[in-house]
Design brief:
The chain is mainly α. The chain is 46% helix and 8% strand. The longest helix is centred in the last third of the chain and has 23 residues, at 324-346. The protein has helices at residues 3-19, 49-57, 61-72, 97-108, 131-146, 161-165, 200-208, 223-227, 234-255, 273-278, 280-290, 293-307, 324-346, and strands at 45-47, 78-84, 88-93, 124-127, 152-155, 183-186. The chain starts with a helix and ends in a 9-residue tail after the last helix.
Length: 355
């Protein structure tokens, strides 16, 4: 069960409780957020839906949580539900949750985290005649499409030729005013210098990694940092981590074994990575909702940094024979690389297999 499927399962339990007259609420939540448990939590995922429903239903959050707990325990794929704190639901999944997460990511490929949550919606995005605004709008549109929306784009003036050729912005954005009642005008702080000398990938990262209200670091004294092939450059860390996962797959093939999702021995080299991979669908949904590609960019950096400790333990050492543990770790590394590649693609940035 993926986080998206679990979210739908919890929401279905809420609806069944309302239909049965156990909860009286006029407006149901459109979606339920599930995430790795916080401090004091347990299980595979946790949700605060009971706290959200407490006021509308006129019931204490622990009572709402206990009611939902009873229903969720009857659901296939859920082994246990524990209520903690003021009313958090902590959900444990049957069997090998980590292996299932890896399997789900590899099955979905770069589309892991994509959904139809926004299907039928056509948000209107408008950008000023500014390189950063147009790149931001393009990235937001990509993420919105990943969630099922069909955004409509307009720009104050036709994009400059260099923005299309070098930055990869669409060439056919129609001119508009952005004054419609449903128009969402994107107003990031403009770039202080021309980003095109950096080339497409570094320029887009330099414009998208900072939050829209933050000033990008561009121009003399800054451009070299965006092109540096070292760990101080977050884009390099993300792309290097992805390339390392592809190199591991090639090296494993030379040793005669392939990735196979399965139980993972939880340790310092995996405990930080798994929750981040599970959280990827939520990050994409939040990126779309807040029109903030910087959220996705920072998430990719976190995944890359959490992946680094795993990489040395993926392949057998010396005369060691490949084991089920090696295959499971290789599958986890491949899943992390898949998330990195899919995220970079949504930002309009290449994810090379060799770096």
């Amino acid at each position: 069960m993926t986080p998206v499927e679990l979210s739908r399962t919890v929401l279905h339990a809420v609806r069944r409780a309302v239909d049965a007259g156990e909860l009286a609420v006029a407006v149901l939540p459109e979606r339920v957020v599930v995430a790795p448990p916080g401090p004091g939590g347990c299980g595979d995922y946790a949700t605060n839906v009971a706290l959200q429903l407490a006021r509308p239903t006129g019931q204490p959050a622990p009572a709402v949580a206990e009611l939902l707990r009873t229903r969720l325990l009857r659901t296939d794929g859920i082994s246990d539900v524990v209520v903690t704190g003021p009313g958090f639901l902590n959900i444990s999944l049957d069997g090998d949750a980590d292996g299932r997460l890896v399997r789900d990511i590899l099955c979905a490929g770069p589309r892991y985290g994509h959904s139809d949550t926004l299907a039928g919606q056509a948000p209107e995005l408008h950008a000023a005649h500014d390189a950063r605004a147009v790149v931001l709008m393009d990235a937001v549109a990509r993420v919105l499409r990943s969630q099922g929306a069909r955004p409509r784009l307009t720009c104050a003036h036709p994009p400059e030729d260099a923005w299309v050729r070098i930055l990869g912005t669409p060439s056919d954005i129609p001119v508009g005013t952005g004054t419609g009642t449903r128009s969402d005008t994107l107003r990031p702080v403009p770039a202080p210098a021309d980003p095109t000398p950096l080339g497409r990938d570094a320029a887009r990262w330099a414009l998208l990694h900072p939050a829209p209200h933050d000033r990008p670091h561009l121009g003399p004294g800054h451009d070299a940092a965006h092109l540096a092939q070292r760990e101080t450059n977050p884009l390099f860390r993300v792309r290097y981590a992805h390339a390392r996962t592809r190199a591991l797959l090639r090296n494993a093939a030379d040793l005669g074994f392939t990735p196979e999702p399965g139980p993972l021995t939880t340790g310092e080299d995996t405990q930080g990575l798994l929750p981040l991979l599970a959280d990827h669908p939520r990050v994409l949904a939040a990126t779309a909702a807040h029109r903030a590609p910087d959220r996705l960019a920072r998430h990719l950096v976190a995944v890359a940094d959490a992946l680094a400790p795993l990489l040395p333990s993926v392949l057998p050492l010396g005369d060691e024979k490949p084991s089920a543990a090696h295959r499971a770790r290789l599958a986890l590394a491949e899943a992390a690389g898949t998330v990195l590649a899919g995220g970079l693609t949504l930002l309009g940035i290449d994810a090379p297999d060799h770096l």
